[in-house]
Amino acid sequence: MIDAARAAGLMLATAESLTAGAVVARLVDVPGASAAVAGGAACYSYTAKQRVLGVDQDLLERTGAVTAEVAAAMADGALALYDADLAVSTTGVAGPGPDARGVPAGTVVLGLARRGLPTRTRVLHLEGDRVALRAATVDAAIAELAAALDVLRD
Questions:
Q1: Strand partners, 86
Q2: Between 20 and 30 A from 45 (CA), which of 94, 108, 110, 145?
Q3: If DSSP states are collapsed to H, E and C, what string results for 2-15?
Q4: Residue 35 carries which DSSP code?
Q5: At 37, is the secondary structure helix, strand, or coil?
């Protein structure tokens, strides 16, 4: 995927809450990633999401962080922050139990922002312990980027 992004002249970015930087870390494991990865923001708190990614504080307080609207805003924020072509975001509940709003563990929302195209989101319901949920989320985020990259290159 990194080679394809580099060949297409596309820059990638991440906005991560649930995965806390693990998606961008996986991306940069590939030699030459600096030619295709602009950066990643690990924004765990509401304040970080608002200050770094520009997520609306009222939205966060009204809905919580595990919503399609927040995932989309995070991805849009990373796209703008890093002047990237494609950005993925991760937000969700890793558990062991539900979050303070009652959102069950294993609920994950991915956001995908693409320069010049509408931002989209995807809700996942994963199973496993905290480590397994976070690992599965990283895999899903990478798969989202790869699929979007294939569409943008065509």
A1: 12, 114
A2: 145
A3: HHHHHHHCCCEEEE
A4: G
A5: strand
Which residues, 6 or more positions from 65, have their beta carbon under 8 angstroms from its beta carbon?
Answer: 17, 46, 49, 91
List % helix, strand, coil for the chain (3-state, nearest 5).
45, 25, 30
pLDDT tens digits, 24-72: 999 999 999 999 999 999 999 999 999 999 999 999 999 999 999 999 9
Predicted TM-score of the model (pTM):
0.97
Query: Is the pLDDT score of 109 beyond 90?
Result: yes
Cα Rg of the chain (Å, integer): 14
Residue 144: pLDDT over 80: yes
Locate tokens 């990373």: which residue?
78
Beta strands in 17-144 (DSSP E): 37-42, 86-92, 107-114, 117-125
- Label residue 56 left, alpha or beta by phi (over 0 means left) and psi (-120 to 50 means alpha): beta
Edge to edge, what strands does the sheet with 107-114 contain? 37-42, 12-16, 86-92, 107-114, 117-125
Q: At which residue do the structure tokens 């199973």 appear?
A: 127
